[in-house]
């Protein structure tokens, strides 16, 4: 069973429906004990970093999420759920993250002709083969909506890069943990394939 963490800030239903489309069952869950027992966990997220990390703390979800990430069990972060894994975000201030992946979350630099947020389809360039990218063509397009991006301290944690005014990490991976800046649940067949791969991960 795949467990989607519900902390009040995510497009949970679209993630759940996307899994259903690929024949995988996913439950939406707010209960810390349930989340601690999950076999596979999804941390989604849409909105402001500050609100998200506060919501996780208020709902006693930080511990179970850290436990799962450190347990070796499959873990997928999506968009803000990717950013929350890092040490700190500079979105509208400076906010401590979960500190699972060393690095920070920074805003795209303003530059002529660069619309922020980065909103729309863009390509990812994988750094190495990864089970979640199996069966997905090289340089495939996925759907993005974000104004901040993760800057991992270690390039080894980067599973894919994307170009948008700069080269940024669009997917990170370390052992059981994978997280993507783009929205697989909004990325049509490529996104469904990635989710199908996670269901088998
Ligand atoms: N779609 C989002 O919620 C984006 C996450 C974050 N607020 C960002 O702008 O990057």
Q: What would you say this structure looks like, in words?
A:
This protein is an alpha/beta fold. It has a single domain, classed as Rossmann fold (3-Layer(aba) Sandwich), CATH 3.40.50. Helices cover 25% and strands 33% of the residues. An 8-stranded mixed sheet has the order 2-1-3-4-14-13-12-9, with helices on both faces. The model has no long low-confidence stretch (mean pLDDT 97). The site of glutamine has 12 residues, from β10. It holds the Pfam family GATase. Its main location: cytoplasm. One of its GO terms (cellular component) is cytoplasm. Its EC number is 4.3.2.10, 3.5.1.2.
CATH architecture: 3-Layer(aba) Sandwich
β-strand amount: 25-35%
Rg from alpha-carbon coordinates: 15 Å
What is the class in the CATH system?
Answer: Alpha Beta
Head-to-tail CA distance between termini: 12 Å
Morphology call: globular
Query: What is the tally of beta strands?
Result: 14
Total individual domains: 1
* CATH overall fold name: Rossmann fold
Largest sheet properties: 8 strands, mixed
List bound small molecules: glutamine
Number of helices: 6
Give the class from helix and strand content and strand pairing: alpha/beta
- In the predicted model, the low-confidence regions spanning at least 5 consecutive residues are none
CATH superfamily: Class I glutamine amidotransferase (GATase) domain
Mean pLDDT: 97
Main location: cytoplasm
GO cellular component, one term: cytoplasm
Protein name: Imidazole glycerol phosphate synthase subunit HisH
GO molecular function: glutaminase activity; imidazoleglycerol-phosphate synthase activity; lyase activity
């Amino acid at each position: 069973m795949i467990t989607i963490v519900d902390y009040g800030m995510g497009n949970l239903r679209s993630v759940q429906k996307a899994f259903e489309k690929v024949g995988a069952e996913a439950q939406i869950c707010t209960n810390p004990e349930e989340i601690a027992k999950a076999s596979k966990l999804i941390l989604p997220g849409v909105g402001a970093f500050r609100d998200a990390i506060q919501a996780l703390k208020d709902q006693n979800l930080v511990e179970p999420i850290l436990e799962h990430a450190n347990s070796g069990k499959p873990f997928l972060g999506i968009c803000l759920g990717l950013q929350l894994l890092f040490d700190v975000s500079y979105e509208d201030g400076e906010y401590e993250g979960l500190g699972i992946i060393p690095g920070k979350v920074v805003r795209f630099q303003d530059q002529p002709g660069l619309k922020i947020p980065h909103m729309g389809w863009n390509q990812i360039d994988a750094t190495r083969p990864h089970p979640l990218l199996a069966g997905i063509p090289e340089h495939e397009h996925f759907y993005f909506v974000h104004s901040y991006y993760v800057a991992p301290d270690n390039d080894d944690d980067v599973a894919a890069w994307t170009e948008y005014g700069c080269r940024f990490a669009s997917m990170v991976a370390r052992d059981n943990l994978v997280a993507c800046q783009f929205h697989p649940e909004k990325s049509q067949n490529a996104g469904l394939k990635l989710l199908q791969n996670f269901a088998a991960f």
